[in-house]
Amino acid sequence: MLQKSLWMILFWTVPSVTDVTSYNCTCEGGHCSENTCNGKTCFVTEQLLEKNEIHRVRGCFNSDITEQCNSKTSFSEARCCYSNFCNADITIYTIKEKVEEPVGLVLVTVLPVALFLILAILFTFLFWKLRRKSRKKLLARLIDFGNEDIVNASTVGDSTLGDLLDDYCTTGSGSGLPFLVQRTVARQVTLGECVGKGRYGEVWRGTWQGENVAVKIFSSRDEQSWFRETEIYNTVLLRHENILGFIASDMTSRNSSTQLWLITHYHDNGSLYDYLQRNTVDPESCLQLAVSIICGLVHLHVEIFGTQGKPAIAHRDLKSRNILVKSNKQCCIADLGLAVMHCQNGDYLDIGNNPRVGTKRYMAPELLDETIRTDSFESYKQTDVWAYGLVVWEICRRTIINGMVEDYRPPFYDVVPHDPSFEDMKKVVCVDQQRPNVPNTWCLDNVLSALTKIMRECWYQSPSARLTALRIKKTLNNLKNSLEQRKQEC
Predict the structure, then answer these.
(1) What is this structure's pTM?
(2) Total tally of structural domains belonging to the chain
(3) 317 and 338 Cβ atoms separated by less than 8 Å
(4) What residues make up the domain containing 175?
(5) b/e for 457-472, b at 16 or more Cβ within 10 A?
(6) Cα–Cα distance for residue pair 186/353, rounded to 1 Å
(7) Among 42, 34, 29, 26, which Cα is nearest to 3's?
(8) Any catalytic annotation for residue 317?
(9) List 250, 317, 384, 445, catalytic entry
(10) Is residue 253 domain-shared with residue 359, that is, in the same domain?
């Protein structure tokens, strides 16, 4: 073992031994026949073995041992000396030195890291608890039926709804009124007539201080949709002319039953679905409707950074019934109960926990054959683009070309039943790969011809091949600008 050991000499000053013949040295180890030996150099070697044991050898050399004394490893060392029995009391290192040295290293390096991790976990836990407590307080304000902390109606004053919103929200941003003001507004709303019904519940026209508002009353089984819309409108800066304006959300008790209210701006023209049933449009109005919808969709899809920013949002249930027509004949997108939010910071995807699915008639192929990547936000945006193409097709059918116009029909009206099943749509869209019929007459008009091209690029079977909402917006705005320039020239 002595021959295999590597040596380390700890910078001793080696005296001149030219005048010394030999020294008597202590001898310990298997190589010793007696307790002493005689040589030119006395030495001690120690080797650290497993289980913190030390193998020690003492003896003497009768030859030049410079190389041996200068060698070393992490686990063996040697010392040389030049006097009688000088190696008798030498110990190179003890168990304490070699065993506790790593322990000290652990205390110096690992302990601070461990303390930091513990503090980080504790801080995260406390932050989560405080955030959860804060959220519970906000929800308690929203659903508490008592009047103890309700803002007095006189606080709102006699200002109009527009003035009230302007007090709290700046143009292009804002996230609705504070919760307590929302509750005050909700309790001052008088319901008029029911203007729409669906699986979610009912929509009523209401009045608040002489102004019309829309009151969406959710059924109890669709509570998650109400909560999701309330959550998005109150946490996201969504104010945009092509997104339905949010006013208030409240949980109230009427006729011994709980009602979930969502109060928004009211639009006399109703949904695009209703509007197209009653009205026809010219190519210019058709383009205006299509442009306004895509502007709203782009605002949803794009993430805005900064203190006045918003996460990116995918609608997931875009259809003509969820688009309203304003008095200026522009559209605004409504119903965010299935919306998905995404923030690039941390790549956070908030899908929510609503068990409801979108409308089957407007589902993209990847939804119907269940190949959509549910962990990718881009996938949800691509399903919105598919649905947008179908909505544009509905508008084009009601556009007058050379005095001719078609009756309103929903997408795939000629190949699936009135209320198609999931399997009905899957066969048509995924297996047969059918698309809504595009009449040849549409190519006779510049606007409808351009919209037809966009539609078809929204309906690609491969989601990644479809246009983005931003690309569609730029294309339609260029078309709109060229039409306006042509009118000015004329």
Answers:
(1) 0.66
(2) 3
(3) yes
(4) 153-265
(5) bbbbeebeebbebeeb
(6) 26
(7) 29
(8) yes
(9) 317
(10) no
